[in-house]
Amino acid sequence: MELLALPPADGPAAPLPTPLERLRLSPALSGAAGSNRAPANATRIAAADDVAAVTAWLARYADSAATLTAYRREVERLILWTVLQLGKPLSSLTHEDLLTYERFLADPQPAMRWVLTGNKKLARSHPGWRPFAGPLAPGSVRQAMVILNALFAWLTEAGYLAGNPLALARRRRAPARPRITRYLSHELWATVKETVEAMPTESARERLHAARCRWVLSVLYLGGLRASELTSTTMGSFFCRRDAQSTERWWLEVTGKGSKIRLVPATDELIAELARYRRAHALPPTPQFGETRPLVLPVIGKAGSEKPLSRGALHLILKEVFGMAAARLRARGPEWEGQAAVLASASAHWLRHTAGSHMTDQQVDLRFVRDNFGHSSLSTTSGYLHSEDDARHEATQERHRIDWKK
């Protein structure tokens, strides 16, 4: 995409957004001579233009796919907006420009240029690709600006920019951390389970799809996993060890944010669900040590050649389940519309919050919840605290259950 002479931003011939990796900018828009560029002898990175500079910043997060995706999305949106909407490079943005951009995020117009048509997510190479699925909620706008502030602060520290245009933003006193609100109540969670248990199982494909939905909900809820952890973990990550009393306990080894490894208690109930799911695929109930099959298996495909589920595919599976559960509530009458809307907006991360909320409801020790979810790094000596691990496993197994009816 060569942006040499831009037509009016809202004209019929206005150029469409192009993904960052395919973006080619004219010298005037590249930022090579941006008005906020620092002197050449001050820079500590090799980038000569804005795209190269933000690529250098993004490279710092290459070891965390989820973070990299989120940060690239926000940087990409800003660069596309500033060159297509303002006709200026990122390194010429002013504080006032960014205030305008903040308002734009809440209502990206013209929608034909910026917003995806339909609900189907398109590949970045598709001509119908757009950087937005719709207007951002206030919380998402704030998060986007936090990410961009980190970008500008780093580019300033690296000597690429003369100053951070977002540093002038009005500083608010940090509010107390709010309670988690994006989770399902026990009643809504029961509706989700009922929905999955009522899924059709007439054909082989329907049976495998229903088994997959049940397994995904089970492992996300009982293990409290992030979506990225579910899609990157293998069956061979389950293992069993004995405590001092020769009691067998199963664990799931998960690599979380920042490549930090943690052990998640695999309760008897979770192991039973694992066996149930594997039997549906004609596999032995217990995974072998080092087994490379992904945690979530494809509905169709040759055994042994399974590819890990993508985060996009996981999103679609859960959206289908939550959508069916919402329809189940709406069928009860119009007074259920509010609750149905909550279910329809749920996502994989809601299940993680749901699991944490329900565990604390059942009086699971907060230290155990913290360690199960990987909210803080483990100390070097934590590998020797087997008695504490066993108490955490026992408390999790005793008080945190899914209780499928069938």
From TrEMBL:
An annotated GO cellular component of this protein is:
cytoplasm
What PROSITE patterns does its record include?
CB (PS51900), TYR_RECOMBINASE (PS51898)
Basic and acidic residues bias: where? Answer: 386-406
Tell me the GO BP annotations in alphabetical order: cell division; chromosome segregation; DNA integration; DNA recombination
GO terms of molecular function: DNA binding
Any keyword Membrane? no
Q: Which InterPro entries match?
A: CB, DNA_brk_join_enz, Integrase-like_cat_sf, Integrase_catalytic, Integrase_recombinase_N, Tyrosine_recombinase_XerCD
Which stretches does the entry tag as region Disordered? Answer: 380-406
Where does this one sit in the cell? Cytoplasm
Q: Name one Pfam family in it.
A: Phage_integrase
Record-annotated Core-binding (CB) domain positions: 48-156
Q: Which UniProt keywords apply?
A: Cell cycle, Cell division, Chromosome partition, Cytoplasm, DNA integration, DNA recombination, DNA-binding
Tyr recombinase domain ranges (all copies): 179-399
Name this protein carries in UniProt: Integrase
Q: Which organism is it from?
A: Cupriavidus neocaledonicus
